[in-house]
């Protein structure tokens, strides 16, 4: 390979640092639009707001009223309220897991097989509750309550169970988790 003057010039152009691609200041083309700001013209919120609570009790009452109006996630529908509920993970453990610590399970929720949802429905009966379960959500309807609950993980509706606790007037759902990497945890 010969090192001619033309070859060296072309090599120098290839090895030269590239020019910046960001245009700044005077390099920008004129668009015909003027950029302005109204930051100084916006009034500051006053600290003497008469609608705000003045005591802790007023604040708590206002917060409770807002929560009732929102009715929590899934919210009530129309004149029906959203019931109280809890979600807990459930893990099946054996003697190998507890005493011998030979199983692949850990105390984390990644090793849990089920999601247990307890929904309190005081004043309702089992016959009045309509339950709809799909892979991503649970919907409960009754004359007094309505709840559409998005689930934190996909579930297998065919292998899930629902039980009515008549003493506590609550619905207990045992939802089988269906996660992508469960074959690693179990």
From TrEMBL:
<comment type="similarity">
    <text>Belongs to the PIH1 family.</text>
</comment>
<dbReference type="GO" id="GO:0070286">
    <property type="term" value="P:axonemal dynein complex assembly"/>
</dbReference>
<dbReference type="GO" id="GO:0005737">
    <property type="term" value="C:cytoplasm"/>
</dbReference>
<feature type="compositionally biased region" description="Basic and acidic residues">
    <location>
        <begin position="1"/>
        <end position="19"/>
    </location>
</feature>
<dbReference type="Pfam" id="PF18201">
    <property type="entry name" value="PIH1_CS"/>
</dbReference>
<dbReference type="InterPro" id="IPR041442">
    <property type="entry name" value="PIH1D1/2/3_CS-like"/>
</dbReference>
<dbReference type="InterPro" id="IPR007052">
    <property type="entry name" value="CS_dom"/>
</dbReference>
<feature type="region of interest" description="Disordered">
    <location>
        <begin position="1"/>
        <end position="53"/>
    </location>
</feature>
<dbReference type="InterPro" id="IPR008978">
    <property type="entry name" value="HSP20-like_chaperone"/>
</dbReference>
<feature type="domain" description="CS">
    <location>
        <begin position="101"/>
        <end position="185"/>
    </location>
</feature>
<dbReference type="GO" id="GO:0051087">
    <property type="term" value="F:protein-folding chaperone binding"/>
</dbReference>
<dbReference type="InterPro" id="IPR026697">
    <property type="entry name" value="DNAAF6"/>
</dbReference>
<protein>
    <submittedName>
        <fullName>Protein PIH1D3</fullName>
    </submittedName>
</protein>
<dbReference type="GO" id="GO:0045505">
    <property type="term" value="F:dynein intermediate chain binding"/>
</dbReference>
């Amino acid at each position: 390979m010969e090192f001619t003057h033309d070859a060296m010039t072309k090599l120098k152009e290839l090895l030269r640092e590239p020019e910046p691609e960001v245009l700044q200041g005077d390099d920008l083309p004129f668009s015909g639009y003027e950029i302005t700001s109204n930051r100084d013209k916006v009034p500051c919120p006053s600290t003497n707001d008469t609608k705000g609570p003045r005591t802790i009790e007023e604040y708590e009452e206002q917060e409770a009223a807002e929560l009732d109006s929102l009715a929590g996630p899934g919210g009530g529908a129309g004149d029906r309220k959203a019931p109280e509920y809890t979600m807990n993970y459930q893990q099946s453990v054996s003697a190998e897991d507890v005493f011998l610590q030979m199983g692949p399970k850990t105390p984390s929720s990644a090793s849990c097989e089920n999601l247990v949802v307890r929904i309190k429905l005081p004043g309702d009966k089992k016959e009045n509750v309509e339950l709809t379960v799909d892979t991503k959500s649970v919907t409960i309807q009754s004359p007094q309550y309505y709840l559409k609950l998005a689930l934190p993980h996909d579930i297998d509706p065919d292998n899930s169970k629902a039980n009515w606790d008549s003493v506590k007037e609550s619905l207990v759902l045992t939802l089988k988790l269906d996660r992508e990497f469960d074959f690693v945890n179990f």
